[in-house]
Amino acid sequence: MRITRVYTRKGDKGETSLVGSAKVSKASARVEAYGDVDELNSFIGIARARIEDKEIDAVLRKIQNDLFTVGADLASPIDVRAPRIEKRYVDELEQLIDKFLAELEPLKEFILPGGDEAGALLHGARAIARRAERHAVKLAQEEEVNDQVIAYINRLSDLLFVLARVANRRAGGSEELVDFGKDRT
């Protein structure tokens, strides 16, 4: 693929073309879902710019590449030939969750999102992933969607939570517990 121009003027009236040439409103559930995935990918890029941990960075780079497949999957009606998320992608995320979770103490209470800069950014990415999942589910209520893409986004938000905790631990930080109003004076 060679991109020679960034603008086409074809979307100036609020519509965009999907894979397979169907035109839809830029306010459609489909565009909202894959737009969230694009935002998530960009936010992970911001996190990667702040992460010094090479192992976490390598995992995030792979996720960024996967998110292009997630976006293509969501941008393509189910009957159109396009890159699709398969169960093996979800399985890989589960293996990563288990691997990184082994480094951490089990949580007994909720924690505040934050920590060092990299950990805080990964918590932010997790929140964007949750929104992307909600919008993918909304799309699936309107038309058929690959169920593995929803499972992938769900598992990805779990992995991002675990990676945020690991990044904070490896940076020597501590986790702050939610006090649920206990600390009011």
Which descriptors apply to this entry?
about 180 residues; mainly alpha; Hypothetical Protein Ta1238, Chain: A; 2 strands
Summed up, what is this model?
By secondary structure, the chain is mainly α.
How would you portray this structure in words?
It is a single chain. The protein has one domain (20-103, 110-170): Cobalamin adenosyltransferase-like (Hypothetical Protein Ta1238, Chain: A), CATH 1.20.1200. The chain is mainly alpha-helical and 185 residues long. Helix 1 runs antiparallel to helix 2 (54-74) and helix 1 (29-50) packs antiparallel against helix 4 (117-142). Strands 1-2 form a two-stranded antiparallel ribbon. A hairpin with a 5-residue loop joins strand 1 and strand 2 (23-25). It has helices spanning 29-50, 54-74, 87-101, 117-142, 147-170; strands at 15-17, 23-25. The chain contains five helices and two strands. The model has no long low-confidence stretch (mean pLDDT 89).
